[in-house]
Amino acid sequence: MSTRKPTKSTTTTPAAVAATVAPIAKKPQFAKNSKNVVLEEEPTVVVKKPTTTTTAPTKNILGKRREQEVVEKVVEEELFEDDSSDEIEEGDDEDDGSIDEQDDEDDEDNLTTGSISTYGEQDSSEDDDDESEEENIEDLDDDDGISGEIPSKYSNDPNQFYDEDNSSEDESLVNRIGNVPLHWYDDYDHIGYDVDGNKIMKGEQKDSLDKFIDQSDPNFWRTVHDKVNGKQVILTDEELATIKSIQRRQFPAGFDPYKDWYDPGPNPDSIHPLSAAPTPKRSFLGDINDERKIRKLTIAIRKGWIKIPDTSNEEKTDQDDEIKRTKAYDLWAPKTEQEVEEDELLQRTNRRISRIPAPKTKLPGNVESFNPPEEYLLTSRELKAWHMMSPARRPHNFVPQKFNTMSDIPSYNRSIREKFERCLDLYLCPRVTNIKKKPTDVSHLLPKLPKPQDLRPFPTHEEHQFNGHKGRVRSISVSPNGQFLVSCAEDHTVKIWEVKSTRCLFTLQLDDTVSCVAWNPNKSLNIIAVAYENKVVMITPKLYGPVQNEETEAMFPKTPIPPDQKVRWYQLNKDNGIRVEVEFEFKIKQISWHYKGDYFSTISPDDKSKSVRIHQLSKRKSQAPFKRSKTPYQVSKFHPSKPIFFIADQNIVKVYDLSKQQLIKKVTIGSRWISSLDVHPSGDHILVGGYDKKVFWFDLDMANVYKVLKYHSKAVRRVVYHPTLPLFSSCSDDLSIQIFHGTVYSDYLQNALIVPLKVLKKHTASSDGLGVLDIVFHPTQAWIFSAGADSTIRLFV
C-alpha cells in the first residue's frame, strides 16, 4: 500500500474547505474479471477542519440554489475519489484502468490550485460524466468570477438557500422564531428556538431604575423596544413621519393614491367566454321591484295624486323669470290689479307674503313754518337751555326761525344726515307684517263650561256626622239599597250605621286592626267582607230579622271545604254573624266584589309571587291566575258588567279578560305611585289617583290619558265614580273632597265633559298628617260619605 503525505494548498479561499485525512485503515478491493470498477468496501476517512478561519461565500453563490447543489455534489464525489487508495490486480489494466503517473500529476495540479488536500491516490479511470461536471464547475467559476473556490456544504446562516431579494424583508430580524406569541415564554429564560433547534435566550431585562436613567438619552422619545429581537430601536425621521401619517389617517409621504390605472391593453383571450351556458330569460326581463314602483306611479298619475308639469309653457316661464330678474322693482309703488290678485292667492294658501306699506310720516306743524308765530320763536335764554338739553329730551330737533320771504330761506343743512337715517330705517325695517299681539283679555282662551248651578244635583254641605269610633276610620261601604253604612277603624271594631238616623245598629270587635270592609253589591245578598291582618271574614248581620233569606244561605253551603296549602277556608257560623273565615299567609290590604256577588278579589302587597287572588264564595275556592309584577300590586277592580278585571301596581294598570284568560291592555298612567282605582259604570273609562297629588281620567277606547286633574296639595287617598249619576270625586290628605261633574257621551267623536263643582272641607287634621282616608257615593242619591283620620264619618248632601 502506497501512502502520500498531504500537501496544503498554497492559497486559502473563502469557499475552500481545508481537510486533513488520516491514514486509511483498510484497502478498498475491486472485483476481478469485470469491466466496471466495483467498490466492495468503503474507505474510512477522517476529515478535520482547519484552525484557520474562512470567509463566507459570496452572495451570488448563496443566492443560486441550483448552482450550489451542483457544486456540493461534485465536491463530495471528488473528495471520495481523492481520499481513496486502491490496488488493481494484474491483467485488469486494459479493462478497468490503472493509476499512472499522469493522474498523480493532475492531482498535484489540483492541489496547487487550492481545490482540496487529500491522502491517497486517485483512480485514473474517471467517467465521462465526471469530466463534464468538472467542466461545468469551471464554467460556473468563470461566470461568477470565482477562480477555483468551492463553498462549504452548509453554514449557520438560514438565508443561504434564499435569494437576496426574497430575504431582504427579514434582514432586520435577529430572532427567527416564527409567528409565535411571546407570552408563551414568560416563565422561561428563552423566547424560542432557531432553525437548528437551539434556544434563543432572552436579553437583559431592565428594571425601573434603568428605564429612568434611559430617559436622560436625547433619543429616548424616539426609542422603541423590539420584543422579538430584544433590543432598542431608534426611529428615524422617515419612520416618525410615517407614524404621524397613520395617526392622522393620511397617506405617507411620496405615496400617490391617485396613480393612473395600468391598462395592459386588449387581451386576445377575452373573446372566450367564462361559461358557455345560454343567456337566461331573466336577463331580458325587468326587476320586479321596479315594476311595482312603476305600477304605483302609474296609478298615482291616473288618480291625480301626482301632477306632471306642462312642458309647453316652460319656455314662457323662463322668459318671465328672466324679465323679473332684470326688471327694477319699486318697493313703495302702489299695487296693480294683478299684484292684488296674487296677494290674495298667497293669503289663501297661508303663505302670508305681501308688500310692506310705506311708513306714514307726521304732518308738519306751525313751528316748522318759515314764518312761524312769535310764540314759537325761542328767546336767548330758551335757546341756551335748548343747547344744554340732551338731543333725546329736546321738543324739536331744530331751532325755529323766521324769514320774511321764501327767497331768504337757506339750504337745509341736515338733508344728507336725514337721508342717511332714512336709508338706515329702511335697512333695519323688519320684514314681518303680521305681528301677533298678546291678548289682554284671556277669558276667550278658557273652555266654555256650563255653570255649576246648571249641573245640580251634587253634594254641597254637610248633613250628618257619625261618631263612635275611637281611632282612624280606614274604610267605609254602603249597602246596595243605600239604607245602611258599614265602617271599620283602627280601634279593632266594625260598625253598621243607619244612614237617616245615624244610629249604630251593629258592632263587631275583632282581634286586630281592620284594614278594609266591602258590602256585597248584590241586593239579594246580605253579606259583608271584612279584612284584618291576614284574615278575611264574611259577616251576615241580622238587619232584616234573625233569619237570612234563601239567596244568602245558598252562598254558605254545608259541603266539605277543599284543602289548600296557602289559603285556608273555615266554616264558623258564630252568633256574632261571622259565617266564613279565610286565612292567608300575608296581610290583606284591599277587597273588591264582583257585581254578581259570588266572586271577590284580595290584594296582599307583601306576597310578591301571588299577591292578587280571586275567590269564589259558594265553592270555597281560591286561585292566583296572575303573574308576578315588577312592583307590588296596590288595588284591583271588577268590570261593572263584563268579565274583565283591572289590576294596578305602582305605575301600570293591567286589563285582563277572565273568560279568554289573556291580557287585553297594559296602560302606563304616568303616576309615580297609584293609590286607588275605580271604573266608570259604562266600563270605558277609569279613574286613577296617586300619592303624587294627581288624578288621572283614562279613556280605554282612545288608549290615552284624557285629563290630569291637579286640585290637591297632598296625596290622593281615594277616587270614586257615582253608580248612577254623572259625578265623581277624590279625597286627599289636605282634608279636601273635590266634587266633579263627568258626562260621558255615546258619540265616540265627542270627549267627556269634566267640570269642577264643589270643594268640601269639614274634616280636621290629625297629628300624623293624615286627612280624608275614604269616600263612597250613595247608590241612588247625590250624597257622599267620607271617613277621616279624625275618627269621624260625615255625610254631605
Report on the architecture of this protein.
It is found in: Nucleus, Nucleolus; Nucleus, Nucleoplasm. Keywords: Nucleus, Repeat, Ribosome biogenesis, rRNA processing, WD repeat. WD repeats lie at residues 466-507. Required for maturation of ribosomal RNAs and formation of the large ribosomal subunit. Belongs to the WD repeat BOP1/ERB1 family. This protein is of the alpha+beta class and 797 residues long. The protein has two domains: 14-247, no CATH class; 452-796, YVTN repeat-like/Quinoprotein amine dehydrogenase (Methylamine Dehydrogenase, Chain H, 7 Propeller). The chain has 13 helices and 35 strands. Strands 12-13-14-16-15 form a five-stranded antiparallel sheet, with no helix packed on it. The chain is extended. It starts with 19 loop residues before the first strand and ends with a strand. Mean pLDDT is 77; it is low at 1-64, 82-154 and 161-171.
Q: Approximately how much helix is present in the residues?
A: 10-25%
Spatial strand arrangement across the major sheet:
12-13-14-16-15
Which architecture of the largest domain per CATH? 7 Propeller
Supply the CATH class of the largest domain. Answer: Mainly Beta
